[in-house]
Amino acid sequence: MTDFALPDLEYDVFELEPHISGRIVELHHDKHHRAYVDGANKALKSLAEARATGQFDKLAALERALAFNASGHILHSIYWRNLSPDGGGQPDGDLFDAINEGFGTFDRFKKQMIEAASTTMGSGWAALVLEPVSARLLVVQIHDHQSVTIQGAMPLMVLDAWEHAYYLQYQTAKEKYFDAIWNLWNWEDIDARFAVAKDVDLLLGDASTRPTKPDWLPSGDASSLPAD
Predict the structure, then answer these.
(1) pTM here?
(2) Which among 79, 96, 165, 198 is least surrounded, fewest beta carbons within 10 Å?
(3) Does residue 55 surpass a pLDDT of 60?
């Protein structure tokens, strides 16, 4: 089995400036993200040892540690790919249509993402997800890295609201960070995740509880949804 590994950035740490400082990106990726990778691998090792020895007295704590650290690794891995020095603007095509259908307008979606990030209690994230059972785009708050999530929801776009993502540059004015990051969103990456998420079938062919096919789903997906 493969251990978790810290992914390389696809851009130089200073290329996201002036919106996110290079020093923040460097510390965020090399220190904070690495700590989640190391924590997830440590939890996996401890769980393997528990299975080998039959000593499961610390199972609950190990499961919590794995959920926290592995989720932190996954969300950060998405976050780095969601950002680009050439990002910003708005998406187009099916993703743009789905955002308008789900939120009314792109501006309303943006406001909800920022509000979700701003009001997350303690540390956490805001995320645009596709809930595959209802085929609905939603904005969710994620406490820490793993709490208050919808099981099976596919994260497409994640906004890190932990202090280490902005404090060195923006200090207590985190709303400026939440606004500035919209100059960096890599809509090509987000759209690619959306295209993959649309094909996920959590109900394994059970059409009885599925919604009518949304207009933004291509006709080729009709086999996994009830007829109109």
Answers:
(1) 0.88
(2) 96
(3) yes
